[in-house]
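PROTOCOL LOG
Step 1. Enter all chains and additional molecules of the complex.
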Amino acid sequence: MNYRTTQRIAFSFLFLANLLVIIPAVLIIVIIIKNGIGAISWEFLTSAPRMGMREGGIFPAIVGTLYLAVGSIVFAGPIGVLAAVYMNEYTKENWLARLIRLAIINLAGVPSVIYGLFGLALFVIFLRFGTSILAGTLTLGIMSLPLIITTTREALATVPQSFREVSLSLGASKWQTIRYVVLPNAIPGILTGNILEFARSAGETAPILFTVAAFYLPRLPKSVFDQAMALPYHLYVISTQVPNVKLEIRYGTALVLVSLVLSLNLVAIIVRSHFRRKKKW
Amino acid sequence: MVDTVKIETNGLNIWFGDVHALKSLNIKVIKNEILGIIGPANSGKTSFLRSLNRLNDLNPKAKLEGSVYLDGIDIYKNDVDVGNLRKRVGMVFALPVPLPLSIFDNIVYGPRRYGINNRRILSEIAKEALMAAYLWDEVKDRLNQPAMKLSGGQQQRLCIARSLAVEPEVILFDEPCSGLDPISTAKVEEAMMELKKKYTIILVTNNTKQAARVGDRTAFFLMGELIEIDKTDKIFTSPSDERTEGYISGRFG
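Step 2. Run joint prediction.
Step 3. Record the structure below.
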């Protein structure tokens, strides 16, 4: 076998691998759209479920999901970014820093259902928040923290060290250097990480299962101590717990959830490319 | 005129991890002179320079012993305000590093950090600094353009102007022309000659001819040691150490 043939075979395998990645993604979206598009209507998006969730819309679940996603990022975004700034700019490389970094990497790998159990134990029971939006957002927030910290640290690390040296050599303090040189140049990466975690929080089921999700609550939550419906859990409920829900409603719900998450990812991509074009070094 | 000592080191040793980068350095820098520092790579030139504005502090592996006096005051004493020290001892790096801001914002970066926000004052500072760095005529009509768009030589003069804008007393040049073409180099050197009237300048360079052109005195570093320091003419015509002669005549380095 000559090297050209070998190369051709290698290329085919690489191409095939790519194809295998694309096919499921396309199939999922096509199937969801095909089965669910019929259910989408103004009424479906803006009214509460009726008749034991077999009819009506998913409005409370959409609102609940937005509450949870926004709440979790409001909680985890600032903490994660500040923690990352501290870790990347202030700590010296020693065993404690390595331990913390290891802990964060491990936290990122913890299955989301474990976060759910943790949230149940800490927020719902121990801190007596009850099954509530507060408990749910905090649980989602803690789940988001490791990745927010990791992506923020990566964004900070891409700011050239020479920028920091220039700022310091001009007599700026360390904080001024972070505030006026490091953070402005790391913002695109930081935003991307935050938006992606926002989208993930909107789509996660396990962490909200025990901490916030209402089986059926055909009204909007009244306070942060109220329960709320949420799209992923609602989808689970109407797909497995309630008999005789029309296929169309299930896929319609899935379509709304997927659209929400994908459009947030799209926003993240746009933000990133917008800043990348503006990046001048 | 009596020569005033601006900077003096006493038994200055610097290590990076296990590497002994600078060995028991005793050197005096006279006010308003250009002191050229030459020597092959890894001879401790840059380590010396970065110890004068305490930029070595950023390297967690760096360890320093001995003293550095600026106007007779040890800059490594605990109560020294490092920000203020770096304001007094400016630095121009080997590669021009414009911040990703406009030309104007680059120049006034330092002054703004000291709380000057008056646009009129900032404009004056910027104009003065750019004129002193021989850049004003080339950029006066486009101060709001990104500094990254300037040519390499212009960027380096921008960096000089940026250092001048904080009104330092000493300017450290760390191989400021290593990435520049001969014409840009000439312009930077022209700026330096003018600057020494007001400032004390230490110029680390890999280009021995540059030290010969602009330096009042020249010091030769080798393997972390100061081999010889003297009037530039003397160093380049009749050095007292044969290693100096070997280096400047191109036998090694």
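Step 4. Note key features.
The interface with chain B takes residues 92-93, 160, 162-173, 176, 180-181, 185, 279-281 of chain A (CB under 8 Å).
The two ends of chain A are 46 Å apart (CA to CA).
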